[in-house]
Amino acid sequence: MAFNYTLASARDALKKREISAVELVDAHLSAIERLDDRLNSFITRTPDQARQAAKQADEQLAKGEGGALCGIPLGIKDLFATENVRTTAASRILDNFIPPYESTVTANLKQAGAISLGKLNLDEFAMGSTNLTSAFGGVENPWKRKGSDARLVPGGSSGGSAAAVAAGLVLGATGTDTGGSIRQPASFCGITGVKPTYGRCSRFGTIAFASSLDQAGPMAQTVRDCAIMLEAMAGFDPKDSTSVNKDVPHYEAALDRGVKGLKVGIPKEYRIDNLPSEIAALWDNGIVWLKDAGAEIVDVSLPHTKYGLPTYYIAALAEASSNLARYDGVRYGERVSGKSLDELYEATRSAGFGDEVKRRILLGTHVLSSGYYDAYYLRAQKVRTLLRRDFLQAYEKVDVLLTPTAPSGAFAWDEKPTDPVQVYLNDVFTVPASLAGVPAMSVPAGLDSQGVPLGLQLIGRHFDEETLLAAGFVLEQAASFTHRPTLHAGVSA
Amino acid sequence: MSLDAKKVARIARLARIGLSDAEVETYRREMDGIIGWVDQLNEVDVTDVPPMIGSELASARLRKDEVTDGNRQEAVLSNAPEREGPFYTVPKVVE
């Protein structure tokens, strides 16, 4: 019973006292014990703190008090600093880092009454699309291909978040998205994920990967769940200089707006060669669904789309190399000693970072180094302006864009390409919105012939998450995606 | 422009990441592939296009010049790998 709730229905049941927060939290904690030694979606579990918080939530609820998320069990991507709870970024270099402060997003969720069950696995420093670069081991996608027990990747970097939500271990999870890290794992795990407008959620206390792109967002079963979470997470924060001082709308109220008269753009450049026919067909379904609900479908062009990925990798890696310079083994984190200070730095960073992180720091250092800065970094920043203009011009004609989320469904752990460029291609549909700073979301829309989920992506105007959510809600209703993965808390072993 | 081992070793030195010779070769090969792939950006005409710096959504803000936080020495030092009293310690730098 405890596992038939969405975040929204659990919220209502808690308010009506049909279930207590203690019961809800205990049920989810026992599901984690049952399933997560296998799934590995958590890096750190915090059952004692969760039970304590559940008692307090029940006291508040009994008095008719409590915030919008009072008593709701969530998971927190282990990239958000949580006061007195180990925060690793899935890296050995932060193996035992205990933040003395709380990120703004998690503080906001706590303020709304949400209860964290622990810290969720991710690609190391959020760098990856498979969750296989985590220093704490990969995450198993709870979905299986028909007739096969092969371990599938949950996507990444928010792979632990997506897997935990999909398996019913939590009712929602925080994610972060730099180039697709919320949307792609949401698609791979059959859940909903929103990357808000850059500046909508504070970056304070979120371990930085690429500061001009990083944005926190909600991941949950449904569009409504994401709307509720986003409202709690978002808001102006003076501690983040890129935070935008704009009121947070009541997102849940936007769901019933529908799409009648809305202009939905279909960017022709997203119909890439070798797009699997199943994904093209799903995209066509999405077009029909929105059209049937009264939207007008308009063909649009985003001419610089093909340059999105290389632009993204230059910008993101350059910023990563700067951001990760702070892990020097001096002020926090793991230290490997050396005879000189430089030896200490080199030994610490050599032992503490994994391969993918090292590769990205090295590339980022290269594109920023003297003699290469103009050729790579400055040029990429210019192309980024063109990519952003593409979106602004499209939004003169349409209100929202519809595309696939990813060029494939979840693949098996051992099918991960060995060529880094092939891995990067996973993000082909998600990076352009990140570069432009516009909001986007993934909604589960169907299963492929092997039985694994596929998502559709909606991309909106800056700060128009409401239209995005309204269109997402229509897609969700039409797709009526009610499938559950093989590994789920509600299925007895 | 292809990368040679010497250049990769220099980049690693700039990034303060210790690499063995074998690692230098692996990263050289992979980085070379990635650099070759991003070189497609040279096709784009960026004449008179300004670089995108920031989102243009947030603007710089002024705040009162006053202390908003502080006196958190123990919290700041609480994760130090090695310390002596109120100081971080590192190998001797000045001879």
Low-pLDDT sequence parts of chain B: none
What share of residues are in beta strands of chain B?
A: under 5%
CATH architecture level-2 label of the domain at 5-40 in chain B: Orthogonal Bundle
Radius of gyration from the alpha-carbon trace of chain B, in angstroms: 23 Å
Task: Assign a percent range to the helix content of chain A.
Answer: 25-40%
- Number of E-type strands of chain A: 11
Class derived from helix and strand content of chain A: alpha/beta
- The SSE order of chain B reads HHHEE
Instruction: Please report the first level of CATH classification, the CATH class of the domain at 7-260 and 440-479 in chain A.
Output: Alpha Beta
What structural class should be given to the helix and strand makeup of chain B? mainly alpha
Oligomer: heterodimer
CATH-level-2 architecture of the domain at 7-260 and 440-479 in chain A = Alpha-Beta Complex
- Percent range of helical residues of chain B: 25-40%
Order of helices and strands of chain A: HHEHEHEHEHEEHEHEHHHHEHHEEH
Q: Quick one: overall form of chain B? A: flat
Question: How does this model look, in words?
Answer:
- The mean pLDDT of chain A is 96.
- In chain A, helix 5 (159-166) runs parallel beside helix 6 (183-189).
- Chain A has helices at 7-15, 21-39, 47-62, 104-111, 159-166, 183-189, 223-233, 277-292, 308-323, 341-352, 355-368, 374-394, 420-424, 431-436, 465-479, and strands at 42-45, 73-77, 115-120, 172-177, 192-195, 215-220, 263-267, 296-300, 400-404, 440-447, 453-460.
- In chain A, strand 10 and strand 11 (453-460) form a beta hairpin.
- Chain A is 37% helix and 13% strand.
- Chain A has a domain at 7-260 and 440-479: Amidase signature (AS) domain (Amidase signature (AS) enzymes, Alpha-Beta Complex).
- An 11-stranded mixed sheet of chain A has the order 1-3-2-4-6-5-10-11-9-7-8, sandwiched between helices.
- In chain B, 35% of the residues lie in helices and 4% in strands.
- Chain B has helices at residues 5-14, 21-38, 73-77; strands at residues 83-84, 87-88.
- In chain B, helix 1 (5-14) packs across helix 2.
- The longest helix of chain B is centred in the N-terminal third of the chain and has 18 residues, at 21-38.
- Chain B is flat, with a radius of gyration of 23 Å.
- At the A-B interface, helix 9, helix 10, helix 11 and helix 12 of A face helix 1 and helix 2 of B.
